[in-house]
Each structure stands twice: as structure tokens, then as C-alpha cells.
Design brief:
α1 crosses α3. The mean pLDDT is 95. The protein is built from seven helices and six strands. It is an alpha/beta fold and 184 residues long. Strands 3-2-1-4-5-6 form a six-stranded parallel β-sheet, with helices on both faces. Helices cover 39% and strands 14% of the residues. The protein has two domains: 124 residues, 3-Layer(aba) Sandwich (Rossmann fold); 48 residues.
Length: 184
């Protein structure tokens, strides 16, 4: 793709290994019943209540889960996109539920600590409220909504989003960077 683009990038499971860390916390708390989740609602796979899972996540938050390092190579991919002259809008649904202010503060600190290039950071449950030309996310709900308003999307392949097809499914954000910076 050529020209200056406004690029939307999600954090969790695009830049940050949230799902894996949430599962590790769930295993440590003993709520998984030996199950490795494969859905967007792991507590259902585990056979526990949503509240039990939310309590584990709150404990993980306070234990420093949001300080974990980025997915290897993810920040470098964002840097390639920024260095190519595109503007970066990080758009995340983080911080919209329990412990929202703490999660938002942890998110800002994580971005600063790992020097994630960006022009703006948005906390939004509806990612269509941030106008972007292209977007990379792990949640099919978000990519579908973005496509409906004319934003071209890439979907990072995760175990919980394999139930439906997506025309631009990738395994790592570096493939998104390749499409924007080094198109074939």
C-alpha cells in the first residue's frame, strides 16, 4: 500500500500476549479444570463462573501481568510502519470494565516502557469511533465492524477466532507491516 495511512493497531494479542497470560494466571489459580481454552470466553471452557475468572484477572493485574514484555518482534513491526511515514493509532478496548483506571494507567506505562511508536492512544470499546485507513486486531467482532465502515482489516490468527474466515488473516503483526511497508 502506498501513501500516508492512518493505521489502527490493537494491543492485546497483537502486541501483548494477553490471552496466554490470562490462561497462565487461571492455571495458577486452579480454575481451569485442566482445560486449555479455545474460545473468546475462557471461563466457559474452564467450567467456572465469569466472576471467578474476573477475580483471577484482577489478581493478575495487581501481580503485574500488564508489565509483561511484548510479543517478540511486535514493537519492531510497529516501528517499521511508523518509519515508513504512516501515523499509528493504538486503539484498545482495555480499561472499560472493572479496574479500568488501573488498567489504563498500566497500558500507558507499558507503551512508554517498551517504546511503542504511536501518534495517539485511544481506549474504545467501539473501534470504529477512531477513523483509520487500515487496522490490525485479533477480535473478529472488531474487524467485522471496521470493515463495515470501510476500514481494511487484518486479523491476527488466534485459537479463539478461527471459527470464521477473514480475507487477511495473519500469524504475526510483522505480516501486517510487510503489507504496508513492503507490498508484493
Amino acid at each position: 500500500m502506498s501513501g500516508h495511512l492512518t493505521v489502527g493497531i490493537d494491543i492485546d494479542d497483537v502486541l501483548f500476549p494477553w490471552y496466554d497470560l490470562a490462561h497462565e494466571a487461571s492455571v495458577a489459580a486452579g480454575i481451569t479444570n485442566g482445560v486449555t481454552p479455545s474460545s473468546w470466553a475462557p471461563f466457559q471452557d474452564y467450567g467456572c463462573t465469569d466472576q471467578a475468572w474476573f477475580d483471577v484477572l484482577a489478581g493478575a493485574l495487581h501481580a503485574g501481568m500488564y508489565e509483561a514484555p511484548p510479543i517478540p518482534g511486535a514493537v519492531e513491526a510497529v516501528r517499521r510502519i511508523a518509519d515508513a511515514g504512516h501515523s499509528i493509532h493504538i486503539v484498545t478496548a482495555r480499561g472499560l470494565l472493572a479496574h479500568g483506571l488501573t488498567i489504563k494507567a498500566a497500558t500507558v506505562a507499558w507503551i512508554e516502557t517498551h517504546d511503542v511508536p504511536h501518534d495517539a492512544l485511544h481506549f474504545a470499546g467501539d473501534k470504529t469511533t477512531v477513523r483509520t485507513d487500515v487496522f490490525v486486531d485479533d477480535h473478529l467482532k472488531h474487524t467485522t465492524a471496521l470493515e463495515a465502515v470501510g476500514t481494511m482489516t487484518w486479523l491476527v490468527d488466534r485459537v479463539y477466532n478461527r471459527t470464521e474466515a477473514h480475507p487477511r488473516r495473519i500469524s504475526h503483526i510483522s505480516e501486517f507491516a510487510d503489507a504496508l511497508v513492503d507490498p508484493a
